[in-house]
Amino acid sequence: MTKEHRLSTVHLRRGKEESLERRHPWIFSGAIERIGEGDKPLAEGDVVEVVTKSGEFIARGHYQIGSIAVRVLTFEREAIDQAWWDHRIAEARRMREALGMIDNSATTCYRLVHGEGDLLPGLVVDVYEGCAVVQCHSVGMYHSRAAIAEAIRNAYGTKIEAIYDKSSQTLPFKADLGAIDGYLWGRCPERDNVVLENGLKFKVNWEEGQKTGFFIDQRENRDLVRRYAKGRKVLNTFCYTGGFSVAALAGGATECVSIDLSERAVKLAEENVRLNFGDEAPHTAIATNAVEYLKDIDDSYDLIILDPPAFAKHHKVLGNALQGYKKINARALEKIRPGGILFTFSCSQAVSRELFRTTIFTAAAIARRKVRIIGQLTQPADHPINIYHPEGEYLKGLVVYVE
Length: 403
Fold this sequence. Notes:
Rossmann fold; Transcription Regulator spoIIAA; alpha/beta; 3 domains; 7-stranded mixed sheet; about 25% strand; 6-stranded mixed sheet; Archaeosine Trna-guanine Transglycosylase, Chain: A, domain 4
């Protein structure tokens, strides 16, 4: 057994251990009094030991430069070695197995690791059939990707054919790691990369698409759209790969229009509709600005989906983000047919559930419509929320009925 290097020690200011005693996994730079070096000079991404003002051990985690200075990996004095990674990835897989997501013939894509929700802050892993797609959001996780890939292989055996690293767009910009996306292990065989979600087919391009290739977190909300869509004309704004459009058509929508600013997204939406329903589906995809499109729809639609990208990635732009949410929701509520249903979402972590609901209330008041909440939505179970880290609840949505 190899001897563990003596870790650099992060000394907290007096009283700053309180959040850690409540198992919150972040240590902010303002909570640190000083950092003592270990056997080697401290570098971003290193594992550090965190102690209180009086020198009592409290946690180990990845050190990083920025507002969040340490992302906690463990509250135990244990080695962060291959056995540790094997255990954490195996636990993540075990939970998905309990959810019925492993070997599910109707749904073949799911999230295996959801950052803090799986006690692995800074790491996301999505599984598409036999390919695991890794995204590192911290330097520490990026440096650990060989161990992560090994742990995934150990957890899945021959059921995983390839592991793809797609971290170049998610790493801290200032880290300047020169990250290049590519396969950490194996390579998926030549095939169409088609996965199933609730029995519906979707083509996923994890090498070139947004995020890891598909917005897995809307799976259950897409299924709800499917239940409400029968006999309705549907508008899917910010459609990306057309997930909500496919669900609506599967549910019996009379017509569906998909809107996205990206030409590539519109083509993907068309491809996924064609994959499920052929060339004759009542579907139109338009590459245009969704906010502008909403101005002139009159009362053409009786089911509208608003699923914009994160308007606020941090609290500094929260005010502008709320104005954006208010504007698009007011327009949709003004234009939707009487008896219509609006699905509206925010994936901004900085926007709380209460704040989002208040914003939709304001939009309804501006639109002067009678509006009732008939559903309150969140992320699915494979995107778990660490009970000690409420910030992990990033996706929130409302379903409202408009008289």
